[in-house]
Amino acid sequence: MIAYQGIKGAYSEAAVYRHFGNDAQAIGYDLSEEVFEALEKNQVDYALLPFENSIAGSVALNYDLLLKHDMQIIAEVFLKIRHCLLANRGSKLSDIKRVYSHPHALEQCRDFIRKHKFERIPEFDTAGAAKIVQKRDEKGEAAIASEFCAAIYGLDIIEKNIDTYGNNMTKFFVIVNKDKIPAGLKNEKTSIAFKTKHYPGALINCLQRLAKHNISLTKLESRPIPEHNWEYVFYADFEGGIDDENVKLALSEMEVSSLFLKVLGSYPKGNE
Length: 272
Prior knowledge:
Structural class: alpha/beta
């Protein structure tokens, strides 16, 4: 059983089937917090959540939850995003006044929304927005969601491919409890979180450890620590597995230079 955030038709559900196959048992939860709780309580075997979009950036909440919980990433899954404007039967583009969708989807279709002067109404997920539009059954309302949602919720596709950029891609992580990491996992990339000590050049000192051991950094981002004002944690991805000797050496040296360092997972490279 694989947990995802959203309802039937969500892009996260499509990512589940992309990674696990069409016969996978996928179950949607309203909130990301509920996905983590279900996994923690062993109500599901895996969780799959979005962590980064090529246009809108990182999904901050999911990174915060991953840091908080004692779980591990075991796979990255890339999904091409193709947004559509969906509305109730008989609606025309000229009828639409308001659009519902996830905040990231609204941002990814910013130019289209501005061009048509739509009112933006954020919702928890794209499929949920489609369901709301279907239930309200008002001609002036539409949802930004996948083509898949149109069939599920009986909506017309008013416009296809309304993304501002054609290379819209979302990266999902598959997460498990630490005692459920599959044996023989091919470790090609590693994700970590760390907090530096407070002295000039502390971050550079940590990152130099990766360069020293010939490790290629692929992502670096800072996030505020919610419980501590003006304190930050850094998230980093790099090439190499946790069992590689150079990675072990680099992380042991980084740990000495950090207030804390947590390995979030070591996993195979996903196919874009």
